[in-house]
Specification:
- The protein is mainly α and about 210 residues long.
- The chain has a domain at about 5-85 and about 140-145 and about 155-205.
- The protein is built from ten helices and two strands, in the order αββααααααααα.
- The protein has helices at about 5-25, 50-85, 95-105, 110-115, 120-125, 140-150, 160, 165-180, 185-190, 195-205; strands spanning about 35, 40-45.
- It has a two-stranded antiparallel ribbon with strand order 1-2.
- The longest helix is centred in the first third of the chain and has 36 residues, at about 50-85.
Length: about 210
């Protein structure tokens, strides 16, 4: 990872980790809600079970956000590095040339022309648009495919990552929530906080390769 990419990843990891530790403390009832009654006196209560399920489901959104942003930032870093080193289109691997040409099909030709001075040098960066890289479809399979296309390693310690299989669970739940196929209660009811922490750790170990 470049230093900025690593910094962003670590910040998001801390954000996600704190959230899942909070979920575990709620489930274990070591963290409770403090509310005031009508007279202003504090009352300690356990969290509502339905709200707890909603909070667990929200964890999948946080995790997916971390995974997709990490991959998007990694791809952007590759394009920026090629641009900074002034690598020409002719020198990049064929797989990456295909990506550049596919990207160009999505670009506005007038905008591309305005960005190009020397076509063999500028065409790579001019073809890139961060918003087009991924859209709700990141899982272990796509990470491996992307790694092959862009030329970086996707190998991880299976004991720590299970080859990214949990990312499919994260993606599926995220998409069910994002598209309204399942309610937050439905998604959050089948996972304990400990299981979510395990998924979180394996997901982070998968992403820290990049």
């Amino acid at each position: 990872m470049t230093s900025l990419l690593c910094q962003n990843f670590n910040e998001r990891c801390r954000e996600v980790s704190k959230y899942f530790i909070f979920l575990k403390s709620l489930e274990q009832e070591t963290t409770k809600l403090c509310m005031e009654d009508k007279n202003g006196n504090p009352k300690i209560r356990n969290i509502d079970p339905t709200l707890e399920k909603t909070l667990k489901a929200s964890g999948f959104l946080l995790l997916y956000n971390l995974v997709e942003s990490t991959m998007r930032n990694a791809i952007e870093a590759i394009f920026n590095d090629l641009d900074n080193q002034r690598v020409s289109f002719d020198r990049i691997k064929p797989e990456l040339q295909k990506i550049v040409l596919q990207n160009l099909k999505k670009r506005n030709s007038d905008k591309v022309i305005s960005q190009i001075t020397a076509i063999s040098l500028d065409i790579i960066q001019a073809s890139f648009n961060q918003e087009d890289v991924f859209s709700g479809n990141i899982d272990g399979r796509l990470i491996r495919k992307t790694a092959d296309e862009y030329g970086f390693s996707s190998k991880t310690d299976y004991a720590k990552t299970r080859d990214g299989i949990d990312l499919l669970v994260v993606k599926s739940n995220r998409n069910d929530l994002a598209h309204g196929f399942k309610s937050f209660e439905e998604v959050g009811r089948d996972k304990t906080a400990e299981e979510l922490l395990d998924i979180q750790k394996k997901s982070l170990h998968t992403c820290d390769k990049f």
